[in-house]
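User: I'm writing a tutorial on reading structure tokens. Could you give me a worked example: one chain, its sequence, then its tokens, then a sentence or two explaining what the tokens reveal?
Assistant: Sure. Here is the example chain.
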Amino acid sequence: MALFDENLTIAPAPRRRMPRGTSFGLWALTVALVALLVLTFLPTAYVIQQPGPVFNTLGTAPSADGKEAPLISVKGAKTYPTKGTLDMLTVQVVGSRERTPNWFELALAWFDPSRAVLPIDSVFPTGQTTQERNEESAAMMVDSQKEATAAALTHLGYDVHPKLSVYSLTDDSAAQGKLRKDDVIVAANGTTITDVDTLRRIVNDADGSAVTLTIERDGARQDVSVTPKKLTTGGTTTWLLGVSLITDYDFPIDVTIQLNNVGGPSAGMMFALGIMDTLTPGQLNGGKSIAGTGTITADGTVGPIGGIRQKLYGAKEAGASYFLAPDSNCDEVVGHVPSGLRVFAVKKLDDSLAVLDALRSGGDLDALPTCTAK
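And here are its predicted structure tokens:
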């Protein structure tokens, strides 16, 4: 029996041609993938903001040696047990002038509501290195801690004694050779100085004439004469000393805020609330989980901050149910509040305390200001 026919020729089946539409789609996909691969290596001019670590001002934080230590500690006054959280939020920046995110990373961030894509110049000013930015941010954190302590202690009835100190001089400062870092400015043209606004007013009222500054240096007082430099912008003339100033205080008790590798001024309000809770009996927050953000000045004024949308998501992720937001940031808050988080608008430290009092006592939360579009 023959198993095959030797005279039979078997031809292979003709290959089916790929439909033109399918072929075009595959080519388009290939081109897109190649383009995406190329884009991942191209430099960009953007950075990404995303939620950063959350710190409970009533809890602990890693110290310089890596050990946990109280975030707020007080010496020289009675302290009380706390409960719940008064969380301060941070924002992380992905990218720098030395290394920017690639286009693929930017695309992923663009569709994530908890992240923001920003021009690099808005985060890292032209001409400023990453190190310079970090140093400036660290100085702002130190200043915010002092202002928060002053606001908290003033509200609790302590006397704080402000003093204005020189932090740095610009390269072309009118005060070069006259003022030094850490000089304390006591008076200007005979008027006692305790804040920047008063000094700025006196300098501008002098209209270019020399200003006599009474300073304290190394424990001794002396007078120096500085002639301000003129700056005209948009038809408006101002007179500048060319110095960066910080306000320091002589506090009656020792308040230490221990927080490493975090910069900026935006935790001021939460620091102030944490200090007050530590120094008063009972739980200021009613034992609840509360988060918030905002700069603060010694008189209790709460100011705007950056990255509030990322901080809202950071608070929600940390388990907070309530959020204290600067009233001046409300336009950025409306329409971007994560589900389950209730946001209250505050202008002063007293407004924050009113929210905490209502939460603690079961008061009418609906009667408190919330963020609405302006």
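What the tokens reveal: The chain has a mean pLDDT of 89. The two ends are 96 Å apart (CA to CA).
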